[in-house]
Structures are given as structure tokens and as C-alpha cells.
Amino acid sequence: MREAGRPVRIAAGQGFWGDWLEAPYRQVTGGPIDYLMMDYLAEVTMSILQKQKSRDPATGYAKDFVPQMARILPLLAERRVKVTANAGGVNPRACAQAVAAAARELGLGGKLRIGVVTGDDLLPRLDGLLARGHDLKNLDTGRPLREIRDRVLAANAYLGAAPVVHALRQGADIVVTGRVTDTGLTLAPMVHAFGWRADDWDKLAAGTVAGHTIECGAQCSGGNCGVNWERIPDLANVGYPIVEAHADGSFEITKHPDTGGRISVAGVTEQLVYEMGDPTTYITPDCVADFTTIRLTQAGKDRVHFTDIKGRPATDKLKVSLAYFYGYKAVGTLVYAWPDAYRKAQAADRVLRRRLQDLRLSFDAIHTEFVGADATHGSLAGRATRFADLPEVQLRVAVRSPEAGPVERFTREIAPLILNGPPSVTGFAGGRPKPEEIVAYWPALIDKGVVEPCVELVDV
Amino acid sequence: MLLLELAHARSGDKGDTANVGLIALKPEYYPHLVKHVTAARVARHFRGLITGKVERYELPNLHALNFLLHGALDGGGTVSLKTDAQGKVFSTALLRMEIEAPR
Fold first, then answer.
1. CATH topology of domain A322-441
2. Domain boundaries, given as residue ranges, for chain B
């Protein structure tokens, strides 16, 4: 347990679903921490989970979370480390039950309380909400949701820290949530530990900035960092970030000793501006944080100090993330070798497009890239003359259509080019491309009062 | 000189918009970036690669500028057909910009 006056240590264990499986274990064993924060949900994750749940009502959560918990549960119980995780997806209750079952198998019966946060799922309520005048207009395009209502696959309001705090206050050791914001998972332990008021905007903003800093895991501790990247030590053993939070709202970002990576002002700043809009107005359900007020100082090796963060009152809206069926796409690739690799790939693209045209296939878009030449930086990569002597170029052609038919037919036009197109071509061992369903994202706002977060407790 | 010699950057996505956070490698470079890396100039740099406007925000406390490049991602996220559907390498694409040397 934490003594009074000591900072609260909140460790990031997962920056997205698919992040390093070793990270949570290393965060729990590498040194003292009070909380493990695990973020699983990206914008389209909820629709994938909703689809799984429609096939099997016992699923719909981040399945990896359960074995990850099973590996560390005895350590968590022994060291009194608590967990906040949005691994619950569209079925937090089933997720909590699965963790409870794993805990009982480990002999932890009677030793663990799991908090379950729900209330974010608006899919069952959608028609009622629309009927009552909540039009859930697309934040980017302004279009009303009615236009795509019959194709909606998931609808989740972003909940803030409050229900997570509520669960912690009731003694939850592990809090499993649905669509709680990434930042709320880090802010909640601070609000709980320090008793911050719901209108202490500067402190809530500070906790939100801390959450934003660690929500992408090692992306603030040396991963994907452009400054002297070759001199960042031992990325194989990279240390995930830890927030050391103080009651006054200041905090430090650090990592466990004897781990790789680097925590510097430059690297932390890269993460602060990541996915940033207007930096004066970072809106969450908890507050509005002003990133132009943050003061950073290097406070030691692998330690950056944050102070002076200012916040403003939260808005009366919540963001809603909707997912809807959009259509189909497929990507075909072939690799052309020297000599004239780039020109051969260009010629193959022309042949392919001519054949698609002759077949009278209709697509929303056909997109060609030459990987090795212009795929990432387009025309900024330089003139075609610079590509004259490339050792190889990958032709990458992608198509998109509301219908499956044209996309399916496209996938059969790639392999023939190996024998009936330009020469010295390889790299097709993966076989025919597979058409993919596109599930698109629809951001919207809803009145806060409409959404009622709910907290349940499961005693193991 | 290349902007790469004065700044580092990280980029990401919000729907069909890519954001590029541009950070001065030394605090004394920041006023130079503010003066020369304008929204208009960034829009010219990315001409043909984005379909919308460019907005710029200043973060003097972090010696950073944040650019929003609208219409950069062919619809964005899952809809996009681009390799860089989430705008992850618009960061280094911006660092290719030619810029006056600071005095």
C-alpha cells in the first residue's frame, strides 16, 4: 500500500490491442508500481468485437487480456497492484467473468474484486435516441446518421474517469471497462488516490496529459522516436512508461531501471503532439486540457517532469464512436526486379488498369503505389529519374467498391500478370489477394445526460 | 537546407486528417520555424498529396508547431487504400521541406 505523500505510480502495460505481450509482466515485476493501465480500444476495434459478439454472446472483449491477467494475477494480489483496462470492449461483464474464472483457478478465490464499467454501448438504444432528436451528425462531414442507420455495427459513447474512480472507491482491484477514454484510465487512479474534486480542472487536465503521454505505451519512452534514433539504447528490452503523480497535479514520466529505451523531453514532446488537434482545447469527458501550458524539464536520466498544466470545464457533450459497413477493398502486389524495375512496375500497372476498364468493373477508387519509390512520400520522394536504377520495386494496387463483385474480380487479375505482363517479376507466393470488408468510422457527439455509466462488482 | 536539420516530427490521424507535430531540435530554432514553416508553405509542400486545407497551431512552450492536413488520407483509417492510411509518415515527408538556414 502507498504511504501518504509518496507519489502514485501508474504504469502503462498496453498501448493498443496487439501491443507487446511481455510489457504488462515486465511492468509488474520490474519495480514498484501502484496501478497498471492497459489501453486496448482503437476506433474500429469496437465493431470487430461487436461482430464477434453477434456470433457468440460470450465474446466481444479483448481476448488477450485474460491470459495476460492470468500470468500476473498472483503478483498483482501479492503486491497490491490495481489494474485499469478498457479490455471489456462491447462485453465487459463477460470479460470480467473470464478474469474471475482465471483467478479462481489460480487459487485467488476471496482475494480479488473486479469492477465492471458499462453504459457506453448505445447500439441497443440507437433508434430511440434518433427518434428523440439526437441526430448523431458526423463530426467531420455534418451528415446525419439516418443516411447510414441500417449499416451501423457499433455505437459507443466515450466515458471518462468518473465510473472507474467509482469502482476503485468500492474496492475494485481490477477495473474492466467498455469504451472508457484512454486518458481516463490513467486519470482515474489519481482522482481516487488524491481525492481531486470533479471541478478541479487544472488537476484533471494534468492527469489527462499524463494519460495522453503514456496511452501509446513505449511511444513516449524511445519507441518510434526520430531524435538520434540509432542511439536509443536497447529497444529489444524497452521500458514502458510509468507516471509518478503528485497530489498537486505535477508528475514525472519515467521507466523501470535496467530497461532499454529513453525518456527525454524530445521523445515525450513527440508523443504530446501525436494525434493532436487544437492544442489549447484537448476535449475529454473529464475536462478540457490546454497543451500549450505544459512545462517540461529533464529531471534526471530517463525522467521528465511536467508542471503548470491548465484545464477548463468539461463540455456538456460526450463523443460517440460509431462504426458502419462501408464496402469492400483488396490490395494486390507484385515485385519487379532490376533492370528497369520501376518502369516495369509502371507498365504492369497500365496493363492492369486497362484490363479492369475492359471488364467494365466499377470502383470508388483504384490506387497505385510503387513501394521502394513513392509509396510513403509520393511526389516528394523526387523525380522518376532517381528511380532508374532501383534494385526492385513493389507494385501495389488497391481497389475499393460498395459491391463485393468487382473487388473479387480484381483479385483474379494480379497473378496472370506474372506470365502475361512485363518481365522479371516475383513476390506472389502469398497467393491471390483477399477481399476485405470495410468497416468505417463515424464520430459524433451526444448530450452527456443521455448516457448513464454503470458500475458493477464481481467478487472472486 | 532541409527542415530535417532543424526539427523532428511525429504524425498521426484523425479521420481523413493527418496531423504533423513539428518540434525544434533546439529551442533557438523555434522562432525560425514559426516564421518560415507557415501553413501556406506547408500546403504548397504537400500540393497534389492532400485535397483539403492546412491549419497551423503554435505550442511555444514545447517549441512545437502542430499542422492539420485535411483530406490527406484517402478517406482515412479503414477506408483508405494508401500504405500510410493512418498518416504515420507524413512526419518525415514534412522534414523533406527546403528551408532558409537560420542566421
1. Alpha-Beta Plaits (3.30.70)
2. 3-94
Nearest chain A alpha carbon to B57:
A278
pTM score, two decimals?
A: 0.96
Nearest-neighbour CA in chain A from B103: distance (Å): 23
State how far residue A138 is from chain B, nearest Cα, in angstroms. Answer: 11
Ramachandran class of A83: left when φ > 0, alpha when ψ lies in -120 to 50, beta otherwise: beta
Q: Where in chain A is the domain with CATH 3.30.70?
A: 322-441
pLDDT per residue as tens digits for the range A260-307: 999 999 999 999 999 999 999 999 999 999 999 999 999 999 999 999
Least CB–CB distance from A293: residue in B17, B21, B61 = B61
Q: State pLDDT tens for residues A48-73.
A: 898 899 899 999 999 999 999 999 99
A380 touches chain B (CB under 8 A): yes
What is the domain class of B3-94 according to CATH? Answer: alpha beta
- For A270, the closest of B13, B21, B59 (CB atoms) is B21
Predicted-complex ipTM score: 0.98
| Distance of residue A198 Cα from the nearest chain B Cα, in angstroms | 27
Residues of B in contact with A294 (CB under 8 A): 61-62
Closest by CA position to A352, among listed A300, A293, A296, A397: A397
Beta carbons within 10 angstroms of residue A135's beta carbon: 13
Q: How far is CA B41 from CA A171, A188, B2, in A?
A: 55, 42, 14
